[in-house]
Automatic annotation (TrEMBL):
Catalyzed reactions per annotation: 2 superoxide + 2 H(+) = H2O2 + O2
Transmembrane regions: none
Alphabetically ordered keywords of this record: Metal-binding, Oxidoreductase
Residue ranges of domain Manganese/iron superoxide dismutase N-terminal in the record: 2-81
Source superkingdom: Bacteria
Role according to the record: Destroys radicals which are normally produced within the cells and which are toxic to biological systems.
Domain Manganese/iron superoxide dismutase C-terminal positions: 90-190
Pfam families: Sod_Fe_C, Sod_Fe_N
Family according to the record: Belongs to the iron/manganese superoxide dismutase family.
Stated name of the protein: Superoxide dismutase
EC numbers, comma separated: 1.15.1.1
Length: 192
């Protein structure tokens, strides 16, 4: 089996003005595609060749893990966003956020701190634990909550290639705009 770059759920310019078409051309079209291509080369003629992406993530290490996890993380990130998204959380996730943080604003501040505080390259995640509780997790490089048995609900890619074209080195400005794109329907679907 070989993997293909998953189709974006929207047009390349659909996230503007928050994330530019140029950023998607590089981030999705080049970075994400390179992870897919590299993974396909690495798994060819190995015991990983017929595994699902999730199985490869759970059974591999080193460069193979990094590429598999980055394919998965990026696909998850693109699906976490939508044109004309954002706003305050809705549905059951809104109730869980309010229960955990007291308000959406407090959650947003905590998420921003998690994302801005992620040292170097990585990801900020809202996850559901096995007991149904939710929390924020920061992972470095390609690390993903899949390997810790947590269910990812929402992520923000804080690798510099996610925002450098639009916001240069200002991760906080990128995060301000990230909130206008969140697909709360998808987050609720994952939470269910």
């Amino acid at each position: 089996m070989s993997f293909e770059l998953p189709k974006l759920p929207y047009a390349m310019d659909a996230l503007e003005p928050h994330i530019s078409k140029e950023t998607l051309e590089y981030h999705y079209g080049k970075h994400h595609q390179t992870y897919v291509n590299t993974l396909n080369t690495m798994i060819a003629d190995t015991e990983f060749a017929d595994l699902t992406l999730e199985e490869i993530i759970l059974k591999s290490s080193g460069p193979m893990f990094n590429n598999a996890a980055q394919v998965w993380n990026h696909t998850f990130y693109w699906e976490s966003l939508k044109p004309q998204g954002g706003g305050v959380a809705t549905g059951k996730i809104a109730a869980a956020i309010n229960e955990k943080w007291g308000s959406f604003e407090a959650f947003q501040k905590a998420f921003d701190q998690c994302a801005v505080g992620t040292f170097g390259a990585g990801w900020a995640w809202l996850v559901k634990n096995a007991d149904g509780s939710i929390e924020l997790v920061s992972t470095s490089n390609a690390a993903t909550p899949l390997t810790t048995g947590q269910t990812p609900l929402l992520t923000c890619d804080v690798w510099e290639h996610a925002y450098y074209i639009d916001y240069r080195n200002s991760r906080p400005n990128y995060l301000e705009n990230f909130w206008a794109l969140i697909n709360w329907d998808k987050v609720n679907e994952r939470f269910a």
